[in-house]
Amino acid sequence: MEDGNRTVYRTRVTVEYSGKGDPARSLALLWRTSERASRKGRPELNVDRIVRAAIEVADAEGLQALSMRRVAERLGVGTMSLYTYVPGKPELFDVMLDTVYGETARPEHVPGDWRGALDRIARENWALYLRHPWLLQVAASRPPLGPNVTAKYDYELRAVDGIGLTDVEMDSVITLVTGFVHGAARGAVEAAQAESVTGQTDEQWWAAHAPFLSRIADAGRYPVASRVGQSAGEAFNAAYSPEHAFEFGLERVLDGIEALINRRATSS
């Protein structure tokens, strides 16, 4: 529904949001403006070790399993000892996000000017999502305002700086590329998880449905869908190839950005 100039969605989408903790404590933790030393006689603990353990829990078991108790178990310490270093789960979650976003490579020189740089950025984000699939459950609208997120955004913007785009267009281009990668990675993760969740491979699923589909589907009524679906199925040995979707889509996204840049050059 419309609320003035803003669209309000009443349907609830299940996602995780960063920034739900105390802003002052979260920012202090993100930028490490204060950190308490480990207590004497306890196993050595610090923020980095706690964050790494939390990321390992999320990677192995998903965000639904993440809790201060579960992180403490992984570290072999009591739950309350974590609160010496981390105010709570919301603040810990913010630092987890900022930490994994620091994993993307940021080489100063990438072959292929802006297009090569954006291609590299897209592939770094693609790999990041596949390493940490739980990132796909996190809303991008409120990123943690930490040093790694800030450095990542600055690096990505520099790929399209000085090529004739306005500042807003630069931001929009990066949003377009990273948004495309987010969607493509979600498809890849869902496809990878399908067998373990359903107990069937793609081949087994199609084999089970094919006899019934052949009775219902009418090639004469749906000629284009029948022809294209058969071609795609033969090419991918499945209804969908996440890798092909990523490669094909990325090239088309970059083509569109190139068209924008060329249009700006001819109009200036």
Average per-residue pLDDT, rounded, comes to 90
Low-confidence parts: none
Q: What is the 3D shape?
A: flat
End-to-end separation = 39 Å
Helix content range of the residues, please? 55-70%
Number of helices: 11
Q: In percent terms, what proportion of residues is strand?
A: under 5%
Rounded to an integer in angstroms, the radius of gyration calculated over CA atoms is 23 Å
**Helix/strand/pairing category:** mainly alpha
What is the number of beta strands?
Answer: 2
Give me the strand/helix succession: EEHHHHHHHHHHH
**Main sheet record:** 2 strands, antiparallel
User: Going across the major beta sheet, what is the strand order?
Assistant: 1-2
Describe this structure in words.
With 268 residues, the protein is an all-alpha fold. It has helices at 23-30, 47-61, 68-75, 79-82, 89-101, 113-131, 147-158, 167-198, 202-216, 223-236, 242-267, and strands at residues 2-3, 6-7. It has a two-stranded antiparallel ribbon. A hairpin with a 2-residue loop joins β1 (2-3) and β2. α1 runs parallel beside α5, α5 (89-101) packs parallel to α7 and α8 (167-198) packs antiparallel against α11 (242-267). It is flat. The relative contact order is 0.10. The model has no long low-confidence stretch (mean pLDDT 90).
